[in-house]
Every structure is written in C-alpha cells, then in structure tokens.
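[User]
Protein folding is very new to me. Any chance you could explain this protein sequence and its structure tokens? I have pasted everything here:
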Amino acid sequence: MSEPLVSVVMVVCNVERFLAEAIESVLGQTFHAFEFIIVDFGSTDKSQGIASSYAAKDARIRLHQIPHCGLAEARNAGCFLARGRYIAIQDADDISLPDRLLWQTDFMEKHAGVGLLGGGGVVIEKEGQRLFAANGEAFFGPDYPSGDKEIRQAMVSGCPFWQPTVLMRRSIFAAVGGYRPPFAPAEDYDLWVRISEHCDVANLAAVVSKYRIHSNQVSVRKQKQQTLGTLAARASAASRKDGHADPFDSVQAITPDVLVGLGVSEATQQSALALKYSDWIRAMCGVREWSVALDTAIEMLRSSDWKCLEPRAIADMRLTAAGLYWKNNRFLNGILTAAHAVITRPVVVGRPLRPLLRRFGVK
C-alpha cells in the first residue's frame, strides 16, 4: 500500500495475554485503507513472536523493534513512522470495534477543522466481560462531551478523551512535536491539550472501542507520576495561554518541587493525588481485583504525609483501606485501620449506624 489513509499505531511490551485479540480487532476493520504500525519496545515474553506471526501473514503490518524505553518514546517512534493522513491509536490490551476506522475517517473527512477525534467506549475486565457504568452501557458515550466547546471546558479539570479511541491528523501531531516523555504516563493528556490549541477537537458519541481494565496497566502502577504529569500539563497550558514560554520545554523530570515552583501548591497536588488513588481503587474493585485494590489503598496511605488534606479526607482513606483489608480476609489489619480512622476523625464511628437511623426518620 503506497498511500494509506490511516496509520494505526500500536506499541507493545509484554502484553502476550491480550495482544492477539487487539491485533485482530484492527485487521478485522470494515475500513481497509490503512497501514498497521506495531512497535515492540523491549518485550521479554511472547509478544514479539505473536506480532511477528501476524506480520508474516498480513502485508498491512509494519513491525518495528526498538530497545526498551518509556511509553511516550515508544509512541513517538510509531507515530513518526506513519504515512497516513490520520493516525489512529490502538493499545495492545484493548479492542477496536469493526466500524471504528470507518466512522472516524468519515467524520474527519467531513470536518476539515477537527484535528483530534475520540469516541465512545465500553469497559471490559481482563477476561473480556463487559462491565457497566453508572450511566449505562457506555463508559463514555452519549453523555460524554462531544463538541469542541464542551470538550475544552471538560479539559480544564479532566481528560475528555480515551487514548485507544483517538484518531488525529498526522500533520497536527507533527506540528506540536508529538508526545513529551517527561509527562508520562500522562503524556496523552498533555498531547491532547497542545493539539486543542491549534484546531477543533471532537468525540463521536458512538462506541468505537472496548477498554480493558486490569491490574497490570501502567496507570495502576504509576498513579502518582500520572497525577503530577496531569497537573504539569495544565500549568504548561496556562503559561502558554498567558503568552509565556512553555516552562516544560527544558524540564527533564516533573517533580512536586517543580510544580510548586510553577504555582501548583502542595495542597493542590495532594488533593489531586488522593482523588487519583480513589478512582483506581474503585476501578480495581469494579473488576474484582481486591488484592490490587488493597495494595493501592496501602500505597495511598504511605505515599504522602497528607498534611494538606482535611481530617475527613484522611479518615475516608483509612476507612477505604479498612474495608479492603476486610475484603481480603485480613481482619486484624482492617480493625486497626478502622480504629485509626476513628482517631483521625471520631465522627466516622457513626457511619455504620446511618442506614439504620434513616429507617427511623433520623437524619
């Protein structure tokens, strides 16, 4: 294929369990004018062999092997090899639905001002079973921000794109310089913010991907650094908006002290980190990874002195950990952690009684 319209880019490192299904979801697209760039960046399991076997059978696959590196560097290696007008991101543990590329390229061809397009998705657990969000089947879909204005508003406090649903114009990716490694594992959010400064952005309401939640995800292992990267991306955007140079053009690592120097207080950092830990604990509970949820809760309590958080928030952390200790049959630890929560904020001792009191009309 001399001039593919779309370049699908997937980076791979030790994902043998999910890789074949992810590759087949791309090869089974109803849209055919694409090349499929797979970059293995240091796998030590069977991932490289799995990718090679598919490449030998399908000429659309361009397989590259590079030394082990960071995720952002690996994504750049794949995206800067792209020849298509559009770059579609495919993660090696997720599944693209058959019409994903068809729907997204059709939208982009009709909306020349849009440089970045996401889509709806459903959450699956490691075995592929669909999970259900509180707002219905779609993890993000009809109620997710879809237009440029509402996406920009949402981007101030969160990330309204999910990376494995994204399709972007190659020209805009190159214009902003691709992913920035110091922001990993929030390199995607930083990229979306910078792209949005140059063009319109959008989300399809249609579900285009199945997003797999499991205990080995990068985001689960590196919540703290992801939180710092997210806060740095916002500080970076604010500096550019004010007409100043990007403070992270010369920064090699994002640390709490660096953020404080840019006006992101320690209290803001701790509040964001506590929220991040809580989100991932809920995600792991949602897929019944109780031991991983407990490990995250323990890490949450140990990762900071939390001196900037209110006692109520700290007590809530300890009650969460206590419940997870109990769920993992570590009853003594659960009792001690719950007691510590009561010491932190004695009023929490009444929480177990609230449902009973409400039954009798006591508020």
